[in-house]
Each structure stands twice: as C-alpha cells, then as structure tokens.
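**Backbone shape codes:**
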Amino acid sequence: METITSELTIKKTKDYFLFNQLKGNRSVNIINKNRLIKSFKKRYLVCPIIVNENFEIIDGQHRFEAAKELNLPIFYFVVPSYGVEEVQVLNSNQKNWSTDDYVEGYVDMGKTDYAIYRDFRNKYEFPVTQTMEILRDKKSGGTDTTNATIEFRNGDFKVRNINKSTKIFEDINSLKYIYEGYKRTSFVAAMITLLNKDEFSINEFLTKLSFQKTKLVDCTNVSNYIILIEQIYNFKRKQKLNLRF
C-alpha cells in the first residue's frame, strides 16, 4: 500500500478486497460505470474515493468498480464516522445524470426499449415521465413516478404495448390545434388516466371541444384537469358521466 502526499493522506492500492459496499447506498449503475471505464482507458486521473474506518465506500463506488475492472490502482482517503447520511449529502451536491444520458447509454448497449422511448420522445416531445408512463402502459398518469424513474435508470424499462401507446400519443397530440398546453405535464397525466377509461372517447371529447374551445384552460394539477374535462365532456349530454372515479 503506497501513501501519496495529501492533507487527508491519500493512499493507493490494488487490494480491491479491502473495500466494502455501504449498506443503504444506491447500487452501481452499469451505464455510469461503463462511461467511466471508457474515460479511464483514455486517461486515468487521480480522483480519490472516500471511505470510512470500515473501508465502506462513501463516495466513488462507480470509480472504484471501473478502476477494478481495468486493474487500475484505487486512490482513496479515510474519513472516520462517515455513513449513509454523508452519502446522501454528497449525492445531492453532485451533478446528476439526465434522462437523456441514461437513454443514450442503454441504446448503445442495444436495449431496444430505450430506442423506442427516444423515438417517441423526439417525435411528440411530451414530458419525460409521462412518455415513460404511456410506454409502460400505466393506467393512471402521474402515479408511481418514483418507481418508474428508478426502473428506467436501472435499465429495466420495458415498452408494454406499442400499439396502444401509439394511439394514446396520437390522441393527445390531436388536441394541439385546440389547446396550446396539450404537452403540459399535468394535462398529459390527466389524459393518460382518461384514455384508459372505456367510457371516455377522444372523438366525443374533440366534438365537445369544438363548441367550447375557450373552456379548456391551464389547471394547477391532474385532478383539476380531470374535473374540467369532465365538465366539457358532459356538455349537452343527456347521460352525464363521472370521469373522476
């Protein structure tokens, strides 16, 4: 083990078994690791990882895995008593990967579901989360977004029903000449919910809108959009529908 001059005593080793994964830390993302491997092959700079007294990695687990795979030395320094709380602080202060970064990485790996996502996102330019939800064939827009994002970033995203998804994209897109806010996050989420209801017809809604174009206005959330759309949909309708439940 070789010591390198530093205020915090940076050390260098190839004893990879010295280090442990901290329980509660997020798992290694293969895209991030592969990006670092590619970078390290070009030039491997001294960028120490942080460990605690138990050699649990607090910061730099992707750098560790990439260097280990290339049989490169690990630069590190020890900060006693650091744990999960410090991990969260460090992660929140660092630049996060964008959705596009994950998409391009998984497309490069040959994951066709991510290529389909990219194509639909480029074509319709709907909000990121709602594009995922439509392609995942979720019945309600705006729900389970945290799990959807985790699934997406972990490389587990799957397109469930491309024909149904295409129709939903097209149905929402058909409103662009009537309502300029048709791509708003909460509006798209509301439309995903309604288009999954058997009693809701996009053609009937378009017909009702042709008489009430000024009534479709921006709302603050999904619930308010659904209430407004229900009012428009029931215009001069003998049998009123409840689209909220």
